Amino acid sequence: LAKNGPIYDVVWNPNSVEFCAVYGFMPAKATVFNLKCDPVFDFGTGPRNAAYYSPPGHILVLAGFGNLRGQMEVWDVKNYKLISKPVASDSTYFAWCPDGEHIVTATCAPRLRVGNGYKIWHYSGSVLHSHEVPSSEEIWQVSWQPFPEGAFPARAVRYQAVAGELPSAEPRPAQAYRPPALRNKPLTASKLHEDEPPQNMKPQSGSSEKPLSKTALKNQRKHEAKKAAKQEAKAESNQESTQPSAPQNAPRSAGPVVTSGDPEVDKKIKNLKKKLKAIEQLKEQAAAGKQLEKNQLEKIQKETALLQELEDLELGL
């Protein structure tokens, strides 16, 4: 799998041609696989530990229950588009209605004996009905009325939320605690981890290539970074050749140009000066806070050797 850690849930799509796995240390990943166990779509990372396909198999809910807040992601698995992101806090039970349109979430005893009740949702995120029992009572079980398979034909997925009973299903989450010494200071953005966005793992249309592995993707990114660095260096050298040289840009050639009479030596000196100028520009970018690639850092480390080589060539003139 693409991330280390436990496997929380694995569920088959009712269409019998794919399944979804939720796995990895939090924030967990969720990926749809085909019958050959090739990844089809990666939903990225998020607070989730369960997956639920609708009875027709056209909608997938990724949810985080138990010790998580109850956040849900409702996906159209035909087009892999996010439909809604409702929140069902303190839920201990989740079930699709046989019609593939509605969902029930419930807080039941003995898992939780406080705040027992249930909610009926439309998959677009609207709460159609909510029922809470008095604090002196408990709910032990909630279930949909059973229907024979195929009693409800699959309907087209809708992204517009239907009219619900509650205008706001969940209260806004409380703000994070801040120590008194930091309460009058501006907020600073800090993350414990970087969230991974969803990614289509299918090969491009007209291509028979298999999806790349994690190692292959990493090598591909390195290759692209090196290629971009080469193009950047080439563009800088072209720009240098078109602009007149200024004294501050070329302190070694401030005086009259001296040639050795050997075209090969002159060419080496010119190339060394270009490399040294590119290193100076990389050092300026690093000082400005830009994150340099590995190959760019290696260029900077070669500066001393290049200066020595240039000095040797110039002394031989």
Automatic annotation (TrEMBL):
Superkingdom field: Eukaryota
All residue ranges annotated as the Translation initiation factor beta propellor-like domain in the record: 1-142
Composition-biased stretches (Basic and acidic residues): 226-237
One of the GO BP terms on file: regulation of translation
GO cellular component: cytosolic small ribosomal subunit
Compositionally biased tracts (Polar residues): 201-210, 238-251
Family: Belongs to the WD repeat EIF2A family.
Name this polypeptide is given: Eukaryotic translation initiation factor 2A
Species: Crypturellus soui
